[in-house]
Amino acid sequence: MNIVLATSNNHKREEFSRILTGHKLFLPSELGLTFDFEETAETFTENSLGKALSLAKLVPKGYAVLADDSGLCVDALGGQPGVRTARYGMETFNRLLEAGERNEYLLSNLKHIVQEEDRSASFVCALSLVVSPYRIFTFCESVEGHIAYEQYGKGGFGYDPVFVVNAVGKTMAELTAAEKDLYSHRGRATRHLITLLGELSCI
């Protein structure tokens, strides 16, 4: 299947490409499309679906659209950053922070929380696939973990250096690509997608 990703984030494309073998993935720019979507909804699924439906209006016939909205939810912060994960800290600094800056800002907001069990968090991924106006699918998955006391690891992107996956005791940034695909929120959601794509190919 030819699938256009509703993102310009090459890191996300790399992760999807590793898992969605056998399918051709494209960024909007590779089809000559300019795509921008303002995420204003209050849930990951609503944002994901909104992006997918918006891009689906632009892509040529024969292409499906896959949109992802992911975020970090920290229990001690009442679920923040949540759907505003990419914009975390903007209200304080009046600008969009770089990934490393966001991580440091998050750590500073948790510096008073010493116990590991009180630093619990989850990474959430909502995927939406639009095959046609009448074939629309959504998936949502998460992975449980906690926030480290400092940044660890060189891999991944975003909040990966500060999010410790409980199942392995390492940050996302310390995992190999294969480990991340196995444990991550995006990897888990994408495996649901693989099952669906297999079923669609039989229709």
TrEMBL record:
Mg(2+) binds at residues 38, 69. It comes from the Bacteria. InterPro entries: dITP/XTP_pyrophosphatase, ITPase-like_fam, RdgB/HAM1. One of its GO terms (biological process) is nucleotide metabolic process. GO terms for cellular component: cytosol. Substrate binds at residues 7-12, 70, 157-160, 180, 185-186. It is an enzyme of class 3 (hydrolase). Its cofactor is Mg(2+). The active site is at residue 69. Its EC number is 3.6.1.66. Belongs to the HAM1 NTPase family. PANTHER family: INOSINE TRIPHOSPHATE PYROPHOSPHATASE (PTHR11067:SF9), INOSINE TRIPHOSPHATE PYROPHOSPHATASE/HAM1 PROTEIN (PTHR11067). This is dITP/XTP pyrophosphatase.
